[in-house]
Amino acid sequence: MVTPEIGLIIWQLIVFLVVFGILAGFVWKPIMGALKAREDQIEDALQAAENAKAEMEQIKSDNEYLLQEARAERDQMLKDASEVANQIKESAQNETAGIADKMIADAKATIEAEKKAALAEVKNLVAELSLDIAEKVIREKLSDDKSQKELIDKFLKEVKVN
């Protein structure tokens, strides 16, 4: 086991006291000042945080009030918009019904006119066919009923109906 001598211990004690004295005189005061300044700065920051928290609570309550007002205004606007939309929808339905009725009436009139034109055309075609058949029958000199019947059957086969 190693034990230090008494002289070494005295010299180490003297060096320690000198270093402690230098540190206490030159280093200890600036360190303590810096720590105090840091402590004050932290305290100020905590106070500012408390003030900001209180201010945020006030702003939050103001925002809640404004939000309630905005919701009420939005609900009223939605109600008004819904009423206007219903009115527009109703007037559009009425207008559409009127237009549809007019279109149906016009279509019925057009169909009726087309029907009359088609019937007139069919009548004219039947009249022309009848005249053609009668003309052909008259041109033929027919001696008996049998030949007349054969001729009519022949003409009916030749005639193409559209």
Task: Provide the succession of SSEs.
Answer: HH
Q: Please tell me the overall pLDDT.
A: 88
Task: State the major sheet.
Answer: none
Q: Report how far the terminal alpha carbons are from each other.
A: 139 Å
Helicity range? over 70%
List the domain count as a whole number.
1
What is the strand tally? 0
**CA gyration radius, whole angstroms:** 59 Å
Strand content: under 5%
- The class by helix and strand makeup works out as mainly alpha
Task: Detail the poorly predicted runs.
Answer: none
Put simply, the count of helices is: 2
Shape: rod-shaped
Structural key phrases:
single chain; 162 residues; 0% strand; mainly alpha
Task: Describe the model.
With 162 residues, the chain is mainly alpha-helical. It has one domain (7-158). The chain has 2 helices and no strands. The chain has helices at residues 6-139, 145-158. The chain is rod-shaped and about 175 Å long.
In short:
With 162 residues, the chain is mainly alpha-helical. The protein has helices at residues 6-139, 145-158. It has one domain (7-158).
What secondary-structure arrangement, pairings included, does this model have?
Blueprint: H1 6-139, H2 145-158
